[in-house]
Specification:
The protein is globular and about 55 Å long. The chain has two domains: 71 residues, ATPase, nucleotide binding domain (Nucleotidyltransferase, domain 5, 2-Layer Sandwich); 151 residues, Nucleotidyltransferase, domain 5, CATH 3.30.420. The chain is α/β, with parallel strands linked by helices. It has seven helices and ten strands.
């Protein structure tokens, strides 16, 4: 059976799954010999990708070619996602959000929300039929911290970490509290309002680069699945074969 390597091409990172559950991440602007060294062990493999960064897709194609992989097949273009997108202007919905819904619904079998915590924090909702029916998008926690630093005269640069407590006792701690607990509060409020709109309680999944941090303070019923998008990509590709 031909080996398959899966790629998620995001706004700032390229994530590679070369073997189920074994994921490596590289900054899009500094993909070098390390990534090519990883892929060299998979010469002849099929490349399967999901992308929200069209400008970087030629770079991904070049890396695959140099590593002896096939030209990448892209979810939503070269094969279907298996998700009905029931919103205004379906083509505008990011493929990562659709794949998150695909995997979350496969895990739950009921109406659910996939919360992807990264450069942006996105909430993507599936109804009881597994259809993508909408959600919300807000700034990621690191982006919010960076915006505070760059848009003010005196607020410092702060590295994203879990705050020790919500009561920030210095400026950096106050910024962390606002961005981290603020993001959690916003997500909880949005999901609560969606629950009321749909008349049911959604099963919630957390994923993305900062999901582990947010899951440490999230409600007990929420489930952290670090590689949810890869799960959705694999499900969509396997079903299309």
């Amino acid at each position: 059976m031909q080996d398959t390597v899966f790629f998620l091409l995001g706004n700032t990172t390229l994530k590679v799954e070369a073997g189920r559950g074994r994921v490596r991440a590289y900054h899009v602007n500094s993909i070098g010999s390390e990534a090519r060294g990883l892929l060299a062990a998979h010469t002849g493999a099929r490349a399967v990708a999901a992308s929200v960064n069209p400008a970087a897709e030629p770079l991904l194609a070049e890396i695959c070619f140099q590593s002896g992989l096939s030209a990448p097949l892209f979810a939503g273009r070269d094969f279907p996602t298996g998700v009905e997108v029931s919103v205004e202007n379906p083509v505008s919905v990011g493929i990562d959000r659709i794949l998150n819904v695909r995997a979350a619904f496969a895990r739950s079998g009921v109406a659910c929300a996939a919360v992807d915590v990264g450069t942006a924090t996105s909430i993507s909702v599936a109804d009881d039929r597994g259809r993508f029916v909408g959600g919300a998008i807000l700034p990621g926690m690191a982006v919010a911290l960076k915006a505070l630093e760059e848009s003010t005269a005196l607020l410092p640069a702060v590295t994203l970490t879990l705050p020790a407590e919500p009561l920030g006792r210095n400026t950096a701690a106050a910024m962390l509290s606002g961005c981290v607990f603020g993001t959690l509060g916003a997500v909880k409020e949005i999901i609560s309002r969606i629950n009321a709109e749909l008349g049911r309680e959604l099963k919630v999944f957390l994923t993305g680069g900062d999901a582990e941090l947010l899951s440490a303070i999230a409600p007990a019923g929420w489930t952290a699945v670090p590689n949810l998008t890869f799960e959705g990509l694999r499900l969509a590709y396997d079903e299309s074969r």
